[in-house]
Write a structure and sequence with these properties.
Strand order of the largest sheet: 1-2-5-8-13-18-21-24-27-30
Bound molecules: calcium ion
CATH architecture: 3 Solenoid
Structural class: alpha/beta
Distance between the termini: 48 Å
Shape: globular
């Protein structure tokens, strides 16, 4: 039988345990609160970019559609519903669009599946006729395709674009409903010349151009070029892309045929940030099974003073190049995990490319290099771009990637930059555990 003092000590112990639990709960709450000023009190769809979380937190910050009234909170699960919810590209009324399940962009307003043949119908385009018309053996390699079949191809491509390209207006949040495998397959979200957009918890898959264009003047052997990025930012400002997954699946590049000896590439970028886009935070996404993953700046003459992008806590796995290809802007790349093992035929050429005077700060990232891989090939550049590095690891070992690249290349990367990142919420000053940590905290489907 317990003595009164023993009972008292049990009570005391229970009280201590209870208050420890309360403190732990409060501590967790505080941590969540610190991550997002509104988390805990606010549902996923209404959350805004936390303070100081990368370039998109600059100035007015990024709130997307958080201010939407109840008439402008939509839940959509078909292409037609998505189009209706987006409304006019110039309507800047705050809106939240919750995507439930996977929306197939290649469907008509009645939900019927559309094929490439449906888009080509009535245009006169056929791949066989196109290949015959522009065969380098007869058409040569000096000029772009023109004439009947090229006109027909462009018309068919325009028909597909009308169906699969979704223009996102200002002050919009697009968010996947947790637990529904939310995403868009076959589509292209286009954020053009608008401010304040949030894209979260969505899987973007199988963005495919039915009508690639042959360009015999692209490189020494010509190239097939496609038109659609899964998400494309042009002249867009204050954009937060968070916890999304980007993949070519299920049609991987290894299944692409070759015509005129060149890969018939049906994919373009995963997330391209071009034409003077600015103040973008790309966070906790997964980029996988893709070739040209992220372009920052569309050419070496894209806008000076813009293209400021923060890229942190993302996983890049099974990508060939452009992770990212950075031009001109002040770009902060931190706490990312790059797995450069060849995956499903996607064999990495390089990860980060700094060119056209890009001012890249790359710190506390981790690279996995397979056996036989070369550290000197992890970066790329044109001799004018900078990459300032701190705390990066290759296979768990502190490594100066720029020194390795510069030792092997004549067009050296510069090692100093003209800025110091200040909007760095969540920056961890070690890359040691990123592979494990990011495996369970990135991409679509982990937010609730
Ligand atoms: Ca392209
Ligand atoms: Ca693109």
């Amino acid at each position: 039988m317990a003595s009164p003092s023993h009972r008292r000590s049990l009570r005391t112990r229970r009280t201590v345990l209870a208050s420890t639990a309360a403190v732990a709960a409060a501590g967790l709450g505080a941590a969540v609160f610190a991550m997002n000023a509104n988390a805990g009190a606010v549902d996923l769809a209404h959350q805004v970019l936390p303070a100081k979380d990368g370039w998109a937190a600059s100035g007015t910050g990024t709130t997307g559609g958080a201010q939407a009234d109840s008439a402008h909170v939509f839940t959509v699960s078909t292409r037609a519903q998505l189009v209706a919810a987006l409304g006019s590209a110039t309507n800047s009324t705050a809106k939240i669009i919750r995507i439930k399940g996977t929306i197939d962009a290649n469907t008509n307003d009645a939900g019927k599946k559309l094929t490439c043949a449906d888009y080509a119908a009535g245009t006169g385009y056929s791949l066989a006729a196109y290949l015959k018309a522009y065969d380098p053996a007869t058409y040569g390699r000096s000029k772009l395709p023109s004439g009947t079949q090229e006109k027909a191809r462009a018309a068919a491509q325009a028909a597909q674009a009308k169906n699969i390209a979704f223009k996102v207006p200002a002050n919009t949040t697009l968010v996947g409903v947790p637990g529904t495998n939310a995403g868009i397959t076959g589509g292209s979200l286009q954020v053009k010349s608008v401010d304040n957009v949030i894209v979260r918890n969505l899987t973007f898959s199988a963005t495919e151009d039915c009508f690639p264009q042959w360009d015999p003047t692209d490189g020494s052997t010509g190239n097939w070029n496609s038109a659609y990025d899964s998400v494309t930012l042009r002249g867009a400002t204050h954009v937060w892309a968070d916890h999304n997954t980007f993949t070519d699946a299920p049609h991987l590049d290894s299944a692409n045929p070759k015509y005129y000896g060149r890969e018939y590439q049906i994919h373009d970028g995963a997330l391209d940030i071009t034409n003077g886009s600015d103040l973008v935070t790309v966070e906790r996404n997964q980029f996988t099974n893709h070739d040209k993953t992220m372009l920052i700046g569309s050419s070496d003459t894209d806008s000076v003073g813009k293209l400021r992008v923060s890229i942190h806590h993302n996983v890049w796995k099974g990508i060939v190049q452009r992770a990212p290809l950075a031009r001109i802007g002040q770009i902060h790349i931190y706490n990312n995990y790059f797995d450069t093992t060849t995956l499903n035929g996607y064999a990495p050429l390089y990860t980060v490319n700094s060119r056209a005077k890009a001012q890249v700060v790359a710190e506390y990232n981790a690279w996995k290099l397979p056996s036989g891989g070369k550290t000197a090939k992890l970066l790329s550049g044109d001799g004018t771009g900078s990459v300032a590095t701190t705390g990066n690891l290759v296979n768990g070992t502190a490594t100066d990637l720029v020194a390795a690249y510069n030792a092997a290349n004549s067009k050296k990367l510069k090692t100093t930059v003209n800025w110091k990142p200040a909007l760095t919420a969540g920056l961890q000053t070690t890359a040691q555990n990123l592979a494990t940590e990011l495996a369970g905290t990135t991409g679509a489907g982990v937010l609730s």
